Amino acid sequence: MTLIGYARVSTAEQEPALQLDALRAAGCARVFEDRISGVQADRPGLRAAIEYLRDGDTLVIWKFDRLGRSVRHLIDTVGELEHRNIGLRSLTEAVDTNTPGGRLLFHIFGALAQFERDLIVERTSAGLRAAEARGRKGGRRPVITPDKLERARMHIAAGLTVREAAARMKVGKTALYEALSQAKERT
After folding, report:
1. What angle do CA 173, 175, 179 make, to 5 degrees?
2. Inside any domain, residue 187
3. Are residues 159 and 105 in the same domain?
4. In angstroms, how far apart are the furthest CA atoms of the chain?
5. Which of 1, 141, 163, 171 is at 20 to 30 A from 154, Cα to Cα?
6. Would you say the pTM of this structure is higher than 0.85?
7. Active-site residue among 10, 37, 70, 125?
């Protein structure tokens, strides 16, 4: 079993020394690092670390927030590692998925994240139903109001193209085409 480390700091100005020292002290044979915001999906150091890991290895991180962009991303990453028989050890949280207790803790985190997602979906759905019952529709307000649509038709009847009419009214041509098409379907 080989321990492979991964460290990440959010900006080029930050120093990963604390993480690197902790990973080396934990016995990591090799350490990969990124100097990039955690919200970035493509992190070359993380990708290289995951590609480097082999069956039976363990990815060691200083803290969970250094690995995952979100709880969902963290769970997906650990799922990918588990599928390849690779463990994950977080030094700060003292969680090691190579142990039964560590796997249990991590799966509890996953269950809580799924529960939170389900609640958000449920609340959003209930809010949309309540708004609909009050006569409100979700989504953005239309850019092309009935008044603007009528003015656009007058411009087009006077010889302007849809593009020219949209520019004169300071609206997007795509929005105007869509509004004209919808109005035509209704008649």
Report:
1. 115
2. no
3. no
4. 78
5. 141
6. no
7. 10
User: Is 135 part of a structural domain of the chain?
Assistant: no
Residues in Cβ contact with 133 at an 8 Å cutoff, skipping those fewer than 6 apart: none
Same domain for 69 and 24: yes
Domain boundary among 65, 89, 110: 110
Total structural domains within the chain = 2
**Host domain of residue 154:** 146-182
The pLDDT tens digits for 36-75 are 887 777 899 999 999 999 999 999 999 988 887 677 788 8
Please tell me the distance from the alpha carbon of residue 5 to that of residue 16, in angstroms, as a whole number. Answer: 12
Known active-site residue 10:
yes
